[in-house]
Amino acid sequence: MRQIDHFIVGGAGRAARKGAIFDPNNGGVQAEVALGDAAVLDKAVAAAKAAQPAWAAVNPQRRARVMFEYKRLVEANMDELAALLSSEHGKVIADAKGDIQRGLEVVEFCCGIPHVLKGEYTIGAGPGIDVWSMRQPIGIGVGITPFNFPAMIPLWMGAVATSVGNAFILKPSERDPSVPVRLAELMLEAGMPEGIFQVVHGDKEMVDAILDHPDIGAVSFVGSSDIAHYVYERGVRAGKRVQAMGGAKNHGIVMPDADLDQVVSDLTGAAFGSAGERCMALPVVVPVGEDTAERLRDKLVPAIEALRVGVSTDAEAHYGPVVTAAHKQKVEGWIAKCAEEGAELVVDGRGFSLQGHEDGFFVGPTLFDHVTPDMESYREEIFGPVLQIVRAPDFETALELPSKHQYGNGVAIFTRNGHAAREFAARVNVGMVGINVPIPVPVAYHSFGGWKRSAFGDTNQHGMEGVKFWTKVKTVTARWPDGSPDGGNAFVIPTMG
Known about the structure:
Elements: E1 2-4, E2 17-22, E3 29-35, H1 38-57, H2 60-76, H3 78-89, H4 93-110, H5 113-116, E4 121-126, E5 129-137, E6 140-144, H6 152-163, E7 167-171, H7 178-189, E8 197-199, H8 204-212, E9 218-222, H9 225-237, E10 241-245, E11 251-254, H10 260-272, E12 284-287, H11 290-305, H12 325-340, E13 344-347, E14 366-369, H13 376-379, E15 386-389, H14 395-404, E16 407-408, E17 410-414, H15 418-427, E18 432-435, E19 451-452, E20 455-456, H16 463-469, E21 471-479
Parallel strand pairs: 1-3, 6-7, 6-9, 7-8, 9-10, 11-12, 11-17, 12-15, 14-15, 17-18
Antiparallel strand pairs: 2-3, 4-5, 5-21, 10-20, 13-14, 16-19
Helix pairs in contact: 2-4, 2-7, 3-4, 4-6, 10-11
């Protein structure tokens, strides 16, 4: 059986504990992953600590050249990476390639790191006084990443962290760890020094060791909100800089003037793509007005029934299995819960079976109508191929739904009315907004981050926000004596006079 080990300098030795990696398409165990502890982490941190000062001293353009080569290598190995990702996660090959490509866009941003690392400079802040700032690396950073994007999110974190001069240790999900290890191998092949990009595997024991380690300066996390809150509190208490991204319940507001054919096309991809296992999925649609709701439902039902669920290698499949049997059971439990709460179950995806893959972790597409805000199944994240219709009588009610929800990751509005779109974008209490864009994940040179229980910490992922997170600012005030015997007159900064 295939064995997946830590990717650290010198190796980690024999693993005392191992975790099973399933093939979601057939339910069988396909590999084992070593589960590390504080001793494994100590070894990785020691290697990072030894390597980081020299890497930070490399000028930014040379670090950028490593990123250029890394981008080339990832692109050259795209097919291999996508197949490996699909085999462990279950998402179809097209979605797997999209996962990798969105991470590569951040690598592209990091190829321009010499420009974004430039500080500010003021000549003549006072008589003979110059003031300037510089961005310097934190030292050692760690990324703790989820199962649903095993390429994109490690690249979001690791590319920015290393390109600004840090050493980076990745702790990926133990459910699908092979792609993160392969990404680290390619980083080394691209010219990254040993010890700058390492991978450790583990469960809560490893996470706690990371959060408590005194030599780790910053931790970036993506996962569920409860765990994100835990990571944030424990990490900050240990004196670390922490960004912790949590769950979501994204809404799509459909105005009466929207192009419903386009809306339905967008919704089937946004709600059911990657089996709904995305924090930027669109699991709630809010039609404004009963007429809009009825017209939308009439178009949605046949579109959902036409979706093809298949194995991850099926090029015709719209989506594949969910990641584990436990997650399948959880999603089907939420379907039962929503029905018990009184919502109308229009399309039921439970009990879906694929011939020849009866033990696979498949959940069929599911549609609910007449879901109400008091239902637990609406308030909580389902994280599966389930779409809920919550009807709103007017614009203000539709605006209120995502604004008052505990999560505030993403939201979308579908309309031809520019005033309504502008008003919605300005007033909605959510961190990322799409206007006729169902999944408003920002491009790499902007930043990703939600509000409320979708994010803990003050800095977003990638873009300039990511650069700020992985660096600290140093400001220098300099005066050179003018050569007179008394060294010149005493100087007082104007704002202190």
